[in-house]
Amino acid sequence: MGVFTTGASKKALPYYVYLILLIPGILVAGFTQDANTIIRKAIAFNLSGPVCLGIVAVYCYQRKVSYKHMHAILLAMALPIVTMSTYLFWKTPDLRDMISGTGSNFASSGGFGPNQVSTVLGIGMFVFTVRFFMRSPSILLKCINLFLLAVVSFRAIVTFSRGGVITAVVMILFFVVVYFRYSKPQYQRKLIIYSLLFIGMGGITWGVSSYQTNGFIDKRYANEDALGREKEDLSTGRTELIAFELNAFYSNPVLGVGVGKVKELRYEKENIRAASHNELSRILSEHGLFGLIAFLILFITPLVMRMENKYNIFFYSCFLFWFLTINHSSMRIAAPAFIYGLCLLNIQYETPRLSRK
């Protein structure tokens, strides 16, 4: 809606090129489809995320937003996540009887995909961390935001999907480091105290999670099975999927195999029906050289912009969320696209007006 009401960014030429580079893969899929292929569904499933990212980037690239408005955006993201966490507690109030292994758990995820639920809850972990450090002027507000952070973190951990939680921790670490660096010296002392309190809350949350899951969550993050034996594959099968997709790219380096075709090829050759979990290997295998150029545009453009404009304190957190999420969960939800757009914003900080005496 923003593109039609306020217009797209006039400087977003790289992202127009990115969207155009997705077209050859669609044409290849159309020319190589078989009788069992529903081309519309294949394109919608595999390109809805990348196209959404392109549109968000076209709108957000170097768009000016106020510091206050940026926090309003983050709050608007966080409130539905609180509702989602409440639903998860209502759906699965007692976890001890339903967890008997170390695999990703659909029951503790409310019946939805654990990977996606963990990713969304990870966003909530980051947002409430930001609000704890930056938008809590009173002790009461700090306690409220710390409590909400603990609740969301607990629900993210007990999904047994590690990707969303680890990504959230990386986002938080980069945010705290950048925030500490740009804070005034007198506030940095307070920031250290808040960080220790924050770490203590994290330890308590993990302890509760371990108790509620009968210790299975500790084994999950130690890459062990329910009996405590170390698993051979840390990536839970993702390595094999990536290897197959890279081989498809080597066999079709220019145009790729076509949108949605790598899943069909995997079933034909290995009798495995599994969608890609890695957006980089997927875009290479299905779009070929055009996909490689498209990914380089997505990766390099924000970094170049950052060299010219260093005012976005959330840049590294948002950029890393996008990059890490597409490497463990591909782009099945719109969250990576939206968060990627946030790292392209030009945040304007309010300065006090000068008054003459």
UniProtKB/TrEMBL annotation:
This protein's UniProt keywords: Ligase, Membrane, Transmembrane, Transmembrane helix
Gene Ontology CC, one term: membrane
Transmembrane is among the record's keywords: yes
Primary residence: membrane
Record localization: Membrane
Species of provenance: Bizionia saleffrena
InterPro entries cross-referenced by the UniProt entry: O-antigen_ligase-rel_domated, WaaL-like
Keyword Transport in annotation: no
Organism domain of life: Bacteria
Membrane topology reported for the UniProt record: Multi-pass membrane protein
Protein name as annotated: O-antigen ligase family protein
UniProt xrefs under PANTHER family: LIPOPOLYSACCHARIDE BIOSYNTHESIS PROTEIN PA4999-RELATED (PTHR37422:SF13), TEICHURONIC ACID BIOSYNTHESIS PROTEIN TUAE (PTHR37422)
Leader sequence residues: none
Gene Ontology molecular function, alphabetical: ligase activity
O-antigen ligase-related domain segment(s): 148-296
Transmembrane stretches, start-end: 12-31, 43-61, 73-90, 116-134, 139-158, 164-182, 191-209, 287-304, 311-327
Listed Pfam families: Wzy_C
